[in-house]
Amino acid sequence: MARRALQAINWSALAERIPETEKAALAAFKSKSDKYLQRVMAHPEALPKIDWTYYKNAIATPGLVDKFQQQYESISVPYPADKYTADIDNEQKETAAKIQKFIQEANVLIGNAETELNRLKAMIPYEDMTMDDFMDAHPTVFMRTDKVTTWPHTEDSQEDVNDDTPDEENH
After folding, report:
1. What is the pLDDT of residues 12-43, one digit of tens each?
2. Count of CA atoms in the C-beta half-sphere (13 A) of 109
3. Distances from the Cα of 41 to the Cα of 6, 79, 113, angstroms
4. pTM of the shown model
5. Do the Cβ atoms of 21 and 98 come closer than 8 Å?
C-alpha cells in the first residue's frame, strides 16, 4: 500500500479565488486538512516488520507461530479502487468546454456592444440634432405624425382605431 496524501496545496491561490464571505469556511477547512495530514504523516508509510524468530523461540507450542505467520502474510487488504478521478477529469473537461463557450458568447456580446458604442459615438450629438435627425436615429421611439396616438404614446396604451365594432355603451 502506498501513502497517497496530497502534501502541497496552494492555499493562498485558493484564498484569492473565493469571496470574502467564504474566507472563514476556507480557514476551517484548511485547519481540518492540516490536522488530517498531520495524523497521516505521524504513522509510518509501511507496517513495522514482525520478528517471527523471536516469537518462535518465545512460544513453546510448535507450529503456532508458523500458522500465525502464514495467515498474517496471506492477508491482503486492497487499496480502494480509484472510481472518481476519471469522473473528475471528465467534469473538468466539460467545465472547460462550458467556459470556452461562455467566452465565445461573451466575445459576441462585447462585439455587439462595441458596434453599438461606435454607432452612438458616430451619431450627431442630441443637442445638435434636428427632429428629422432624431427620427432617423430612433425610428421606433419617435412619435410618428402619420399615426395619431394618445398620451402616454406607448403601444400598449393605444386603442385600436381600426376596430369597427361599435361600443355597446354608446348605443
Report:
1. 888 898 999 999 999 999 999 889 888 888 88
2. 6
3. 11, 18, 55
4. 0.43
5. no
